[in-house]
Amino acid sequence: MRAPDPSPPAHPARLILILSLAPTIGLGIGRFAYSLVLPDMRDALGWSYSAAGFMNTINAAGYLAGALAASKLIGRYGLSAAVRWGTLACVLSLALSALSGNFVVLSVARLLVGIGAALAFVSGAALAATIAQSRPARADFLLSLFYAGPGLGILSSGLIAPFVLQAFGPGSWWIVWWAMTLLSLVMIVPLLLTAVDANAGIAAAAPANFAVSPILIYLTGYFLFGAGYIAYMTFMIAYVRDAGGGAAAQSAFWSLIGVSAFVTPWVWRRVLALDRGGLSTAIILGVNALGAALPLFGHSPALLAVSALVFGVAFFAVVGSTTAFVRLNYPPSAWPKGIAAMTIAFGIGQTLGPIAVGAVTDAMGSLSYALNVSAAMLAVGAMAAAFQGRLVSRE
Fold first, then answer.
1. Are the C-beta atoms of residues 79 and 198 closer than 8 Å to each other?
2. pLDDT at 246
3. What is the DSSP string of 188-205?
4. What is the pLDDT of residue 201?
């Protein structure tokens, strides 16, 4: 049985929003700001698309490693400590990215931010799920606040990075990384100073096993999401620039993706509550595929803006739907393992996606092929998730 929390938090929304600063730094800035700097890094450092894709592949490999290690680290040090140390590792990696143009050094930095982001995400999501469960009537809405975090990171980096590059000129990518480091240092302060401890709700529950086989089709869909979304988020800024978009256009496009995250809790709250199977994820992932496919129909600013909004409003909700799936189908003691399993499937997908898509782009000579592959994988992922049924209640 799930024992009620003897002392539910007085301000669950505030605590979850503070927790959301972990994916804001680790994902919104640590992972995705790379796309904003990538065109200048490619030009200044002489990278191919395959080399550029490798940087996100090694980042994803770090994310996968962090997800694999998360359950053991959480068991040893606790959820709160895992969130803080994982996020601190992300800040350190941003500073490391600014120090050298050496490919190996940058690879280590991308690996480190992946490891830290995964650890902070898995532990933060488990904490957020536990806090949200203290208000069952609002649990889906409260949980979705955590997944708005990356949107804040995308928005803030989108408002800064393109204009820093414009102001300092070609080769100033390393200045952008220093700017991202300073921004992250400011954002991490509330996370370090606020006591967020919901460990009791998980630790007090009886140990629970987490079997992969009943949700294999669902994990396959999430794997395809990881492989598919990353091409869009890695190369779309380069696509906008190649279409003639300057700093303002790049900033506007990226900021629209970030802004869309803030309406996600309201847009998808009813869809997330549909059932305990994969239908919610399938619907949201289908919309995500549509957003990724829209740039294939033209380069007009209006079409690109709609693409950013549609992709963004679904992108953040897909990740949230998987945690909602775990929360609804498993007891609290299984949540860290369940969220880690989702993150591992996602991590494998996004590890394979960037370098494969980069190689396709090098071979075919056009980023349009990368977007084709991205949209197709997202669509197939939506179909896979739709076949996931409810699990037998484990309460």
1. yes
2. 84
3. HHHHHHS----HHHHHTS
4. 45
Secondary structure class of 352 (helix, strand, coil): helix
> Cα–Cα distance between 252 and 269 in angstroms, integer?
27
Return the number of other C-beta atoms located less than 10 Å from residue 303's C-beta: 14
Mean pLDDT of 175-200: 87
CA distance linking residue 104 with residue 107, whole number of Å: 5
User: Is-contact 62 111, C-beta < 8 A?
Assistant: yes
Q: Which two tokens stand for residue 308?
A: 């950013």
CA distance 196 to 180: 25
DSSP state, 48?
-
Q: What is the pLDDT of residue 392?
A: 59
Question: Is 86 in contact with 116 (CB distance < 8 Å)?
Answer: yes
Could you tell me the two tokens for 214? 């009943």
Residue carrying structure tokens 């490798």: 54
Distance CA 269, CA 9 (A): 22
**In angstroms, what is the C-alpha Rg of the chain?**
19
pLDDT tens-digit readout, 294-311: 988 877 888 989 999 999
Alpha helices in the chain (DSSP H): 12-19, 21-23, 33-45, 49-77, 79-99, 103-133, 139-146, 149-168, 173-193, 199-203, 216-242, 247-260, 264-267, 269-272, 279-293, 301-329, 335-364, 367-386
How far is 203 from 63, CA to CA, in rounded Å?
25
CB atoms within 10 A of CB 395: 7
Please tell me the distance from the alpha carbon of residue 211 to that of residue 321, in angstroms, as a whole number: 19
Length of the chain: 395
Q: Which of 299 and 187 is assigned the larger pLDDT? A: 187
- The structure tokens listed for 12 are 């669950």
Sign of the Cα pseudo-torsion (151, 184, 48, 42, in order): positive
> Could you tell me the pTM of the whole model?
0.79
Q: DSSP assignment, residue 297?
A: G
Amino acid at 133: Q
Q: Give 14's Cβ-side CA count (13 Å radius).
A: 6
